[in-house]
Structures are given as structure tokens and as C-alpha cells.
Design goal:
The complex is a heterodimer. By secondary structure, chain A is mostly helical. Chain A has one domain. Chain A has 5 helices and no strands. In chain A, helix 3 packs across helix 4. The longest helix of chain A has 18 residues. Helix content of chain B is 57%, strand content 0%. The chains are: A mainly alpha, B mainly alpha.
Chain lengths: 81, 237
């Protein structure tokens, strides 16, 4: 199997695994092996990205103003503990 | 139970599209993603379930509590997709306003975060459609283009990226992706949507979504390698 053939089917291989011929190519070809390793590594690292950024206070201020203007909120009730 | 669509300012300007015409997600057809094991308690002392109930009754304090709990995730999503603070803030605001307008119809406590997140994604997609930015080309195929082809000699030194990606350079490289690639990559690999969900949201085929994701990852690999080379060169200088 040539690299071009392997890489043509790569989305399917990454998604569902390769057939025996493709697996053999993956073991014997350093270029394709490294490519697959990188693509899997990128996907794994992407899953680890967490929401880090906090919106500026003006975002809530704008929401609050619109909620009041649209009559979607009423004053908070007293909380009895 | 389907959520009744309500007119919003952002929707009012959008011509009906094939995939986003009925943009509101329903509480019953979305499975919880990364569910937490215990009830979440907000800084105000309310549980999330209590805050949702109170928000459904229109209580102002609970709206703010829900906002504080989910603002980072929604804002980060908007910022990553748009790449600029001003639009990300506008879309965050719009997503929460839509949430509050529709919260009376929400029924499934466990799916709240997923419901809100899907709503935010739809707000971003509608905004992108309004701007006319490319999402996913329907003409794309699974054939790798010359630009995307990896059949080049990549040398023997530092052949793989393993161990070289940190959050900062990954975020930076994602920002450098073309908008269509960035969108697919964020939805699938970062936010965890499946191809059938993405295809539904964006009005493309599942195969097209897979193809675009593959190309996005290939492009991202190039960008990460370039950024790594740049960093190494600046260290040597």
C-alpha cells in the first residue's frame, strides 16, 4: 500500500480503525505512523481545553438591563432559611 | 416537548436556512454531555435546580446565579469561534437572553448545561450565517488536496508533536485556522459534538463534516509545527 492510498482513507481509518493492509502500512511507514500519532494527539489535547476566559462585567450589565426592559424579571423574594 | 420558537432580534434578521430555521434545542432530545455526579451548588447557596426553578418564575437573583455558573463556558465558546472580544461579548449576551426568554419551557434539569451550550452554538452559527462567513463547503470531498497532503519529508528530528502542545500554543493555532475549519474543529474536538449533530446544525452532510474535520486537524498540525519551529528558532537566536 502506498502512502497516498493510506492517507486518502485516513479520515475513515481514524474514525473506525483500519483494515489489515492499512494497519500493516501504519506499522511499516514512519511518515504515516507519525501523521496518525499527531492527529490523535491533537484530538486528545483539544478535549483538555477548558473554558478559561471570563466575560467583562459589562456583559451581565447589558443582560440585566435588557431583562428589565423586556419585563422578564421580578424583584428577588425574601429567602427564609 | 418541543420548545416553542420565540422571535428574537438576532433571528428576525436571518433568512430561514435549511439547518438552523428551528434553532431552539429541545430539552428531551439532547443527551447530557460530561454530566456531573452531584447536584451543583451555586455561590449564592442555591442548587442549580433551585436556580432554574426560580428563574422560571422570573426571579432576578437566580438569573444572575445561572449566568455566573455558566458564563465562562459560553463566553469561551463564543470567543474561540469568533476570535474577537467584542463579538464574543455580544453573542454571550444574546445567548443568555435567549436562555432567559425560553427557560420557562425547560424541563430536564440534568440537561441544562447541554441545552444552554447548544443554544449558544446556535446563536454563534446564526451570527456567522448573517455575516456570510464560510461554514462548510458542500463541494468538499474526502479527497485530500495538494495543500492538505502530508506526503512530504518531515525529517527525522522532532518528527511528532507528542509532548510539545500546551494550552497556549494550541489556542493560538486554533485561532489561526480558517473560519470554516476552526468551527468544525471546535464543535467536534473541543466541544464534543458528534458529526451527525454538526451536520444537522450546519446543514451539511456527515461525510462533509468528517472531511472538514480531517482537513482542519491537518492544517492545525502544520500550524503547530510551524509555531514550534518558530519558538525553537527564537530560543536559538
Amino acid at each position: 500500500m502506498k502512502c497516498a492510498e493510506f492517507q486518502r482513507d485516513l479520515p475513515l481509518i481514524l474514525d473506525a480503525g483500519g483494515n489489515p493492509e492499512q494497519e500493516e502500512h501504519l506499522r511499516s511507514c514512519a511518515v504515516c505512523h507519525d501523521l496518525v500519532a499527531d492527529l490523535r494527539y491533537i484530538a486528545e489535547q483539544a478535549k483538555l481545553l477548558v473554558p478559561m476566559r471570563e466575560p467583562a462585567p459589562r456583559v451581565w450589565n447589558g443582560i440585566e438591563e435588557r431583562l428589565k426592559r423586556e419585563g422578564l424579571v421580578k424583584p428577588a423574594q425574601e429567602r427564609h432559611l | 416537548m418541543p420548545i416553542r420558537k420565540q422571535a428574537t432580534e438576532i433571528e428576525a434578521d436571518i433568512p430561514p436556512g435549511p439547518s438552523l430555521g428551528d434553532s431552539a434545542p429541545t430539552a428531551v432530545d439532547i443527551l447530557p454531555r460530561r454530566p456531573g455526579p452531584a447536584p451543583r451548588v451555586l455561590p449564592s447557596g442555591m442548587t442549580e435546580a433551585e436556580a432554574i426553578q426560580r428563574a422560571q418564575a422570573g426571579e432576578a437573583e437566580s438569573f444572575e446565579a445561572l449566568y455566573n455558573m455558566h458564563k465562562r463556558r459560553v463566553y469561551s465558546l463564543c470567543l474561540r469561534m469568533m476570535g474577537n472580544t467584542a463579538e464574543a461579548e455580544d453573542l454571550t449576551q444574546e445567548a443568555f437572553l435567549q436562555l432567559y426568554r425560553k427557560i420557562g419551557t425547560f424541563r430536564s434539569e440534568s440537561a441544562f448545561s447541554t441545552w444552554l451550550h447548544r443554544l449558544a452554538v446556535n446563536v454563534v452559527l446564526m451570527h456567522l450565517r448573517k455575516k456570510g462567513l464560510p461554514e462548510v463547503s458542500l463541494q468538499e470531498t474526502l479527497e485530500p488536496s495538494e495543500e492538505d497532503g502530508p506526503m512530504r519529508d518531515i525529517g527525522t528530528q522532532d518528527r511528532t508533536l507528542a509532548g510539545s502542545i500546551d494550552r497556549v500554543n494550541l489556542e493560538r493555532s486554533i485561532e489561526e485556522l480558517p473560519p470554516g475549519y476552526r468551527l468544525i474543529f471546535l464543535l467536534h474536538d473541543v466541544e464534543g459534538y458528534e458529526h451527525n449533530e454538526i451536520a444537522g446544525m450546519m446543514g451539511c452532510s456527515i461525510g462533509n463534516s468528517k472531511s472538514q474535520l480531517h482537513k482542519a486537524r491537518m492544517k492545525l498540525r502544520d500550524l503547530l509545527r510551524e509555531n514550534r519551529s518558530g519558538k525553537a528558532a527564537s530560543k536559538r537566536a
